[in-house]
Amino acid sequence: MKNKLKLLIIFSLVITLFILLNINQLAASDSSSTELSNISIEDQASLCINNSEIIIQEMIQEGFNIQRLNDTLKQARLLFDSQSILKEQKRTTDFSRVIPLCSEIEALQVLALRAREDFSVLLKVYNDNIDANMIGPEIDELNNMVSEIQSEILSERYEKVEPLVNSAYDKISEIKSSNTGVNVFYSNTIGGIGSLLKAKNPILQIENYWVIGGFIFLLVFFLLIYKTSIRKWRIRNNIDSLRMRKKTVRELIMKLQKDYFQYGKIPEGEYNIRTKKFAEIIRDIDRQIPLLQEEIAKIETNKSLK
Questions:
Q1: CA atoms of 54 and 57, how far apart (whole Å)
Q2: How far apart are CA 79 and CA 90, in angstroms?
Q3: Is 166 helix (H, G, I), strand (E, B) or coil?
Q4: Total domains, the chain
Q5: Is residue 275 in a domain?
Q6: DSSP state of 207
Q7: What is the distance between the alpha carbons of residues 9 and 6, in angstroms, rounded to a whole number?
Q8: What is the Cα–Cα distance from 151 to 137, expressed in whole angstroms?
């Protein structure tokens, strides 16, 4: 009986101590919450302007143009100063109007870092897959896209970069899947194409345009016969392109991790943003590949049914 009484007393003491500790924690939490709520809107506006100034300094160190950021910061400062004057005159103020401008600066920083990272990955994929000797209208169009992306970044129109980058990836896939050798042959022989057509074929002893016409007819004939195989080949080429892009992104992730953990070259905020963006790219690739593989399976099923 005595042992049971001792156990009951010990258990009661433990429960009492647990309740007291939780009460203290709740009191501390309430105190912290009260302290945060005591920060006035004016102080919050002042803090957000200071934070915006820090962001702009970081952007300068990263080599970005800051005209758009500076313009937004100037608006925030003017608005803050005008509200301060109203406060001195004992008139109604609204410092909360400053905070959305600071939020815009924060959003621009995120967009800028993402845009530059997207462009960096695109350039690596471009250099890995587009040969300097390639020429033709598709190559010109791709180069114009790359120049346009660079221009948008320099002009601080970061929100326009992502769709342009996606279009550039599509164009690279098109170029990879096309017969670039035909383009090279065409560029090398364009000057003498007229004389080539009029000349007689040394074997058949007829004009070359008859030979070329016959070749085009056969080519169209075989394309019609093997169009399913060609379609499957193009899809597989796109899958290979996506896998190559995924490999490139993984290599960039490894480099990013070394720069952050081993060398300390980049701040934590930029590391988190770039890591998140890389993860989004990989998820998008992992989503596209099964869809393309499913398309190949449907083609093979339809072919077998015929």
A1: 5
A2: 17
A3: helix
A4: 1
A5: yes
A6: B
A7: 5
A8: 21
With respect to residue 293, please indicate whether it lies within any of the assigned structural domains. Answer: yes
**pLDDT tens-place values along the chain, 306 residues long:** 445 444 445 544 445 544 444 544 434 444 434 443 457 888 999 999 999 999 999 999 989 999 999 999 999 999 999 999 998 999 998 999 999 999 999 999 999 999 999 999 899 888 888 877 777 888 889 999 999 999 999 999 999 999 999 888 888 888 877 644 555 445 555 545 555 555 555 555 566 656 677 668 777 766 666 667 777 888 888 888 888 888 888 888 888 888 888 888 888 888 888 888 888 889 989 999 999 888 888 877 876 655
**Which structural domain, as residue segments, surrounds residue 265?**
226-306
List the end-to-end C-alpha distance of the chain, in Å, as a whole number: 89
Q: Is residue 295 part of a domain?
A: yes
CA 262 to CA 212: how far, in whole Å?
61
Q: 43 lies in a domain?
A: no
| Strand-pair partners of 252 | none
User: Which helix (H) or strand (E) segment is 203 a member of?
Assistant: none
Buried b (16+ CB within 10 A) or exposed e, 35-58: eeeeeeebeebbebbeebeebbee
